[in-house]
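testing teh design pipeline on a random one, pls ignore if ur not involved
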C-alpha cells in the first residue's frame, strides 16, 4: 500500500488567506464598506466564515491586512522592499522616486477601487478612519519623517523644520487631488510638488 503524503496545511492556509484578501478587497470596491460582511467575504473566497473568525475578529481587520499585503505585493513586483525609503544623499531624487511609486499604486485598479471605498467610509466612520491612519497611513508617513530628519543631519533641510509638517507639502496635495479628482496625477505632477516644496515659490 502506497503511503499518501500528509496534506500541507501551511500551504492550504496560505491559499485560503490569499483568497480572503482578494475577496475582501473586491467586495469593498463593489458594494462599499457598510455592505461588505464577513459572510460575504467567506462566500466570495470559498471558505467557511469560521475560517475568517479564526484569524481576524472583524471585517476591518481583514481589510487592513489585505491592504498591507497588497502594498507588499506591489513593492515586490516593482523589485522594492515594502515600507522602505531610499536615502541616496539626494533628497529631491529620493522624494520624487517615492512619490512616483505612490502615483503608480494610486492608479492601479487593484488598489484604487477598494481604497477609495475605504477612504470614503473613513470620513463618516470615525473608528475606521482612526484605524486607517494608524495601520495603513502612519507607517508610511513615519518613513518621510525619518528621511527628512536624515536630510537635516546632512544640512539639506533647515534644522528648525518640523518633518511631520513638512511631509504634508508632498503627501497632502497628492491625496487631495486623488480623492477629489481635481486634476490628473502623474509623475510630472509629483516631481513638481517636490520642486515647489523644496525650492519655494518666490524669486531668490
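output:
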Amino acid at each position: 500500500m502506497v503511503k499518501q503524503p500528509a496534506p500541507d496545511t501551511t500551504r492550504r492556509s496560505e491559499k485560503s488567506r490569499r483568497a480572503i484578501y482578494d475577496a475582501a478587497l473586491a467586495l469593498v470596491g463593489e458594494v462599499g464598506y457598510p455592505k461588505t460582511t464577513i459572510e460575504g467575504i467567506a462566500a466570495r473566497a470559498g471558505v467557511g466564515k469560521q475560517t475568517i473568525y479564526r484569524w481576524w475578529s472583524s471585517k476591518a481587520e481583514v481589510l487592513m491586512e489585505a491592504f498591507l499585503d497588497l502594498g507588499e505585493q506591489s513593492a515586490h513586483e516593482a523589485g522594492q522592499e515594502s515600507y522602505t525609503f531610499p536615502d541616496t544623499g539626494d533628497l529631491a531624487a529620493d522624494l520624487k522616486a517615492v512619490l512616483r511609486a505612490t502615483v503608480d499604486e494610486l492608479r492601479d485598479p487593484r488598489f484604487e477601487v477598494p481604497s477609495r471605498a475605504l477612504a470614503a467610509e473613513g470620513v463618516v466612520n470615525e473608528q475606521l478612519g482612526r484605524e486607517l491612519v494608524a495601520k495603513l497611513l502612519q507607517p508610511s508617513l513615519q518613513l518621510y519623517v525619518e528621511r527628512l530628519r536624515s536630510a537635516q543631519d546632512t544640512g539639506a533641510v533647515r534644522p528648525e523644520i518640523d518633518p511631520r509638517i513638512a511631509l504634508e507639502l508632498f503627501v497632502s496635495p497628492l491625496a487631495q487631488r486623488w480623492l477629489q479628482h481635481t486634476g490628473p496625477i502623474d509623475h510630472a505632477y509629483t516631481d513638481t510638488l517636490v520642486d515647489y516644496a523644496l525650492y519655494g515659490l518666490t524669486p531668490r
